[in-house]
């Protein structure tokens, strides 16, 4: 045994290992929702945080954070998640307006887009995550009597294994166009699981389909171990993100998609901060420096 407490990356529930990261995003969305200059609104987010003993005392309003926006976690990092939510809300809605009616959220976590976005008629949202996360989410949403604005299908699956059957068995149709999202997911997966995921998205999509995902370009994540964001997250929530991220070599998924004929573009979060006039900007020792948001379209006319 070593002296450091191991975090179990493999626990099934939402309240341990990688499942806890879903709460981090939920708390950030709650804070974003009630900002005066909010970029995205998710009124369900705070209920997830309050319902779980592991995080029930985390702040869900920036006013409850003593240093306010000066807090690297609940200020800058939470704003990052708010911006990411808004940018990917826009991506999904823009994409379904061009025709696809199937939306697949990979590593959906506590995402409530099925409940809060105004989808065109006939849309179906498939939420893929581990069973424990989806069960917790179901319980909270049921207690709130929340009603989805779209047909919603939950797909319990481990994205490190063969998840394709789980999706096609519940009605996903590979012959019809689809829109896919992997938000805050890929860096938790081993490289081969990411390669498999991208291969499967390519195999399960027709022309007119789209995919957005978040990637990290850093070759050595440990360089940022002492960055304000990671340090504050460790100290204020006990979540050691660097421990949870997969440390193996990363595939070049954007390049792989381009080689498969997809048209891809890559942006930094800071590009969107400038576009929206709010959000994080670069700073020294910045754990967000290598984050990229990739948008890929399959043979879009
Ligand atoms: C940081 S959260 C992001 C959740 C959501 N996409 C969002 O942005 O709100 C990461 C999510 O990925 C899920 N996840 C991580 N590894 C997974 C795996 N091997 N199989 C299925 N889901 C996984 C976790 O359970 C968690 O819900």
List descriptors.
globular, 37% helix, single chain, Rossmann fold, binds S-adenosylmethionine, alpha/beta, 7-stranded mixed beta sheet, disordered N terminus, 301 residues
Q: What can you see in these coordinates?
A:
The chain has a single domain (19-298), classed as 3-Layer(aba) Sandwich (Rossmann fold), CATH 3.40.50. The protein has 301 residues and is α/β, with parallel strands linked by helices. It is globular and about 50 Å long. The N and C termini lie far apart (57 Å). 37% of the residues lie in helices and 14% in strands. It is built from 11 helices and 7 strands. Helix 4 (113-116) links the parallel strand 1 and strand 2.
The kinds of small molecule bound in this structure are: S-adenosylmethionine
- Strand-and-helix sequence, N→C? HHHEHEHEHEHEHHHEHE
Using the alpha-carbon principal axes, give the shape. globular
DSSP helical segment count = 11
Largest sheet: 7 strands, mixed
CATH top level?
Alpha Beta
**Ranges with pLDDT <50 over ≥5 residues?**
1-11
* Mean of all residue-level pLDDT scores: 93
CATH H-level superfamily? Vaccinia Virus protein VP39
Percent of residues in beta strands?
5-15%
Distance between the termini: 57 Å
Strand adjacency order, main sheet = 3-2-1-4-5-7-6
**Helix coverage percent of residues?**
25-40%
Count of domains: 1
Classify the fold: give the CATH topology: Rossmann fold
CATH architecture: 3-Layer(aba) Sandwich
Q: Using the CA coordinates, give the radius of gyration.
A: 18 Å
Tally of strands: 7
Structural class: alpha/beta
């Amino acid at each position: 045994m070593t002296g450091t407490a191991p975090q179990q990356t493999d626990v099934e529930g939402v309240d341990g290992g990688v499942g806890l990261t879903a709460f981090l995003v939920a708390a950030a969305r709650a804070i974003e929702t009630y900002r005066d200059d909010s970029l995205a609104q998710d009124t369900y987010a705070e209920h997830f945080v309050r319902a779980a003993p592991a995080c029930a005392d985390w702040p869900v309003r920036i006013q409850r954070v003593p240093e306010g926006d000066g807090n690297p976690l609940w200020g800058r990092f939470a704003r990052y998640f708010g911006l990411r939510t808004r940018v990917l809300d826009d991506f999904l809605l823009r994409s379904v307006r061009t025709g696809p009616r199937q939306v697949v959220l990979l590593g959906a976590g506590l995402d409530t887009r099925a409940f809060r976005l105004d989808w065109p008629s006939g849309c179906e949202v498939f939420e893929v995550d581990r069973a424990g996360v989806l069960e917790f989410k179901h319980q909270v949403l049921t207690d709130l009597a929340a009603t989805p604005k779209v047909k919603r299908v939950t797909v319990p699956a481990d994205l490190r294994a063969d998840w394709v059957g789980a999706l096609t068995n519940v009605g996903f149709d590979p012959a019809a166009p689809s829109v896919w999202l992997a938000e805050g997911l890929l860096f938790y997966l081993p490289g081969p699981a990411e390669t498999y995921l991208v291969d499967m998205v390519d195999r399960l999509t027709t022309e007119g389909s789209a995919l957005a995902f978040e990637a990290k370009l850093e070759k050595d994540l440990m360089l940022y171990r002492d960055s304000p964001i990671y340090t504050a997250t460790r100290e204020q929530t006990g979540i050691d993100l660097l421990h949870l991220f997969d440390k193996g070599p990363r595939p070049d998924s954007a390049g792989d998609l381009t080689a498969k004929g997809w048209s891809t573009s890559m942006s930094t979060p800071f590009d969107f901060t400038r576009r929206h006039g709010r959000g994080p900007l670069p700073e020294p020792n910045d754990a967000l420096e290598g984050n990229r948001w990739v948008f890929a379209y399959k043979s879009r006319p």
